[in-house]
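quick one, 244 residues, struct below
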Amino acid sequence: MKENTENQKQWKKIYLLGGVAAFIVFGLTLSDIIIGSMTSGDLTLLPQTAIEHFEEFRDSWFMGLYHLDMLNVLHSAAMIPVFFALCAIHREIKPAASSIALIVSLVATTIFITTNTALPMLQLSGKYYSAISETQRILYAAAGEALLVRGEHGTPGVFFGFFLLTLSNLFISFVMLNTGIFKKVVGYLGIFGNFSLLIYIFLVTFLPGIKSIAVIIAAPGGILVLLWYLIVAIKLTNVGLNKI
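---
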C-alpha cells in the first residue's frame, strides 16, 4: 500500500510538471500570436536573405531571433514534460498510442532544435558587422545563406521539425478521445486546431506563393490550439494537485 502511495506521489509530480510546462507553452503560443499580429503576420515581409537577417539583428536581436523561430524552439522544448505527463496519465487506458505520441514528440523536438539557425545567425550577424574587409563580409553572408537553406521558416529545411511537432499534438489529441480523462471537446479542439496548422505548414513550405492565404487558414487553428494548451495545462495541474 505504501509503495502504491509513493508511486502515486511520483506520478502527480509528473502531472504537475507537465501542467506548469503546458502553461509555459500557452504563454509562448500567445506571445507568438500577439507578436505576429503586431508585425502584420505577412510572411512575404520577412527578411529573405542572410544580409537582410543580419540587418534585422542589428536593429532588434529579439525580432531577429523571433523570425528565425526561436520562440518555437522554446515551445518545442517545453512540450517535452507536457507529453511525458500526457503519456503518463493515459498509461493504463491507451499505453501504446500515448507512447507513440511521446516518441514522435521527442524525435520532432530533436530535429527542430538541431536544425534551428536563430543563434548561429545571430553570431554571424555580429561577425558580419565587425568584419574589417569586404571579403570577410562576403564569406559571412555566404555562411548565412547556407544556414538559411537548412533552417529558414517556411522552407523544406524546417518542414519535418514543424510537421512532426504538429503531428504529435494531433496524435495525442486523438488519444484523448473516449478515455474519460479529458472531455471529448478537448480532443476535438486539438484535432481541428492542429490539423489546420498542418495545412498551413504544407502551404508555406511547398506553395510559397500563397503565404498570405496560408496565414488566414492557420489563424483559427492557432486559436483552437491555444485554447487546447490552456485546458491541458489546467487539467494536468489539477490532477497533480489532486483537484480532479
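The longest helix spans residues 2-38.
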